[in-house]
TrEMBL record:
This is Effector of murein hydrolase. The chain crosses the membrane at residues 15-32, 39-59, 71-88, 97-123, 156-176, 210-236. PANTHER family: PLASTIDAL GLYCOLATE_GLYCERATE TRANSLOCATOR 1, CHLOROPLASTIC (PTHR30249:SF0), PUTATIVE SEROTONIN TRANSPORTER (PTHR30249). It is a multi-pass membrane protein.
């Protein structure tokens, strides 16, 4: 097999990346179910490992890969909106917890950003890197737009979003067991608030209430960050 010819074909055929992405996620699902839904082998993690390996092997840029999977990016919006269904089914319960939800959103949201930014500042990271980290806990489409507004690097911001989502989904369940969190609502809200879409995918497996509160947290966190983060950044600038 002519390896150079294969690489050339991949670079000149955008559809290759779409097929690879869908196939990788399908493989991830198979692996996840094969190993009794082990937390460390979630479909999204297996898919990322496969895709990143191919991207590095073929020396493909993020821009080139993104061009090939634009259709998936387009459907992120409708998919996020579809999460409104579990929200609607638990609307009365959500209303009864309105004050705790808002308080948790503000306190946890600010603390999450502050501790990440603080660590990077201590490690003497560049300003662009620090700014890119501030959008780590919101869903990718909002992170891209917000990062552009505050002068961050969109591709780096998306990278932080992915890493945060994976770590949250991996460690979330373990942390819940260690500190004995039993309520689905608490688990779901924490996963959605910190790990956005990837955390919400994990919350769906926990239960309907967890899915509802995770979707709620993801949405509110995205709105809260998109509105107030540019204002705060501009104030400090």
């Amino acid at each position: 097999m002519n390896f150079d010819a294969v690489i050339q074909y991949i670079h000149t055929t955008p559809l290759t990346w779409l097929i690879l992405t869908l196939a990788s996620f399908k493989i991830g699902i198979i692996v996840y179910e094969k190993f009794n839904k082990n937390t460390l082998l979630q479909p999204i993690i297996v898919a990322y490992a496969i895709i990143m390996s191919v991207i590095l092997l073929t020396n493909t840029s993020y821009k080139e890969y993104f061009e090939g999977v634009k259709i998936i990016h387009f459907f992120l919006g409708p998919a996020t909106v579809a999460l409104a269904l579990p929200l609607f089914n638990n609307l009365k319960y959500i209303k009864s917890l309105f004050i705790p939800i808002i308080a948790t959103l503000i306190i946890a949201g600010v603390f999450s950003i502050a501790i990440a930014v603080g660590l990077l500042w201590i490690l003497d990271a560049k300003l662009a890197t620090i700014l890119s980290m501030t959008t780590k806990s919101i869903t990718a489409p909002i992170a891209i737009i917000t990062s552009e507004q505050i002068g961050a690097i969109p591709s780096l911001a998306v990278g932080f979003v992915i890493i945060t989502g994976i770590i949250g989904a991996l460690l979330g369940t373990i942390i819940f067991k260690v500190i004995k969190i039993k309520h689905e609502t608490s688990k779901g809200f924490a996963l959605g608030l910190i790990s956005h879409g990837i955390g919400t995918a994990r919350a769906i497996e926990i239960g309907q209430k967890a899915a509802a509160f995770s979707a709620l947290a993801m949405g509110l966190s995205g709105i809260f960050t998109a509105i107030f983060l540019p204002i705060v950044i501009s104030f400090f600038k």
